[in-house]
Amino acid sequence: MKVEYINPFIESVCELFTTMLNSTAERGDVGVYWEPPNTSDIVAMIGLSGTARGTVAISFPDSTALAIVGRMLGEDVRIVDDKVRDGVAELVNIVAGSAKGKLQAGEGVPIELSLPTVVRGTDYQVDHPTRTAWLEVPFNSEFGPFSLRVTFEKANGDDGPEK
Question: Which residues contact 7 (CB under 8 A, 6 or more apart)?
């Protein structure tokens, strides 16, 4: 996976914070992992299919998810319930949809999105094809820390660096 493939996703996160949350998200350095780290309380994932295949995930501590969804809804949200799960699912859907548009415009890569999935807890494993690397970008915001994770395999064999 080329690191520049993550740029549309990073841009989409930043645009989401500016337009929907009236805030900013400060990104950290991009890291490459062969296994996705399972360190957050709530993870929203969405699959990519078509010429480009992979997964986009946004990973939050509960406190960050509560604060972001509370801002989206304009109310004080104190527990992770259906509203919060739906909210974080919508966040990953917005980020992936926006990045999809940027990738298709820039590279002409036809991509379809699956329905988002939300996973809670820290005891889970997400498996992807062998030699598929995860790119992770940590962010910090007024709502707290979170991470964007992307694994991406193009059908032409551009599936990332050698392990």
Answer: none
Using DSSP, state whether 150 is helix, strand or coil: strand
Candidates 3.30.450.30, 3.40.1550.10, 1.20.120.450, 3.30.1380.10; CATH matching 3-151:
3.40.1550.10
Is pLDDT above 90 for 159? no
Q: What is the pLDDT of residues 70-101, one digit of tens each?
A: 999 999 999 999 999 999 999 999 999 999 88
Q: What is the pLDDT of residues 144-153, one digit of tens each?
A: 999 999 987 7
State the burial class of residue 23 (Cβ atoms within 10 Å of its Cβ: 0-12, 13-18, 19+).
Answer: middle
Going by their DSSP bridges, the two strands 52-60 and 42-50 should be labelled as antiparallel
**Is the Cβ–Cβ distance between 99 and 8 less than 8 Å?**
yes
Non-local (6+) Cβ contacts of 98 within 8 A are: 8, 11, 12, 15, 16
Token pair in block for residue 86: 């739906």
